[in-house]
Write a structure and sequence with these properties.
single chain; alpha/beta; Rossmann fold; 5-stranded parallel sheet; 6 helices; 5 strands; 44% helix
Length: 154
């Protein structure tokens, strides 16, 4: 089965990587879709986010990194995936993602599969990482080392 894991990955966190790696052990092919959202100010541009993910996941031969703009379901159709996979950290994620799953099913008949975050990453988000880093906090336990290095360049 070929699946799509979409997200902004700005920056990629250990939680993102955990969901991707776990998915790669369950599904035959994993497309990681890095969304370009012109309405959102990103810390890293899309090519930087793609390159970080490519470097982090280089040993996972069934994982491919692609960027996209526009509707998720259009990209999912283009990639010919069977389902969309979303990681969930808490019930607040579930409320939002459940609505999105229903909309994606309504728009294009796509199923969404939810993967619960590993307990050690349940509290980690890209926005928290950016905030902690902006105040000089230590984010080494929250993101892969390549992300730490890239954050220093920002």
């Amino acid at each position: 089965m070929k699946i799509l894991i979409p997200g902004s990955f700005d920056p990629p966190t250990n939680g993102h990587i955990d969901v991707i790696k776990r998915s790669s052990s369950v599904f035959d092919e994993v497309i990681v879709g890095v969304v370009v959202n012109p309405q959102k100010e990103s810390m890293f541009d899309v090519s930087q986010r793609e390159n970080m993910l490519i470097e982090i996941l280089k040993d996972y031969k069934n994982v491919e990194i692609k960027s996209f703009e526009g509707l998720l379901v259009d990209f999912a159709k283009q990639m010919n995936v069977s389902a969309i996979v979303k990681g969930l950290r808490a019930m607040t994620d579930f409320d939002y993602e459940f609505q999105m799953a229903q909309m994606n099913f309504n728009l294009a008949d796509f199923e969404t599969i939810f993967i619960a975050a590993s307990p050690e990453y349940g509290y980690v988000s890209s926005s928290m990482v950016k905030e902690i880093f902006s105040y000089g906090g230590d984010v080494n336990a929250l993101v892969p080392s390549i992300v730490v290095e890239r954050l220093k360049d920002v």
